Structure to design on (125 residues):
């Protein structure tokens, strides 16, 4: 990620707008379209973005603006990167071995089974 000169844990939407060159309404719209982009909110209900969120925004911007992906195509590209490696990438192949993640539906089923097991275990305590 570029060094923006700001060393903070969290950025406001106006700061992110300036850093990325995107309007605030675009950032809010992308939150509705890209499930990976979910900035937190502070006590006042204002969005707070992390460096990871900003990296993701810049990746989405690159896909949509530079590489001319549609929103659906960008979603698929981001999902493919997450499933292939387990973490979002910048489109740059990792030097290390890729981790292959199971089908997300299978992971959900596994997590539901674990939740049920833990609930049963908790009832014995």
């Amino acid at each position: 990620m570029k060094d923006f000169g700001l060393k903070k844990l969290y950025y406001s939407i106006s700061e992110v707008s300036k850093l990325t060159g995107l309007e605030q309404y675009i950032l809010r719209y992308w939150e509705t379209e890209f499930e990976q982009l979910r900035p937190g909110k502070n006590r006042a209900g204002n969005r707070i973005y992390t460096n990871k969120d900003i990296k993701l925004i810049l990746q989405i911007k690159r896909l949509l603006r530079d590489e001319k992906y549609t929103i659906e195509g960008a979603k698929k590209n981001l999902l493919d990167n997450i499933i292939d490696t387990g973490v979002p990438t910048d489109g740059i192949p990792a030097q290390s071995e890729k981790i292959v993640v199971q089908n997300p539906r299978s992971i959900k089923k596994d997590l539901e089974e674990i939740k049920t097991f833990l609930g049963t275990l908790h009832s014995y305590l």
About this structure: Residues 93-100 have pLDDT under 50 and may be disordered. Strands lie at 40-41, 47-48. The chain has one domain: 13-100. The chain has five helices and two strands.
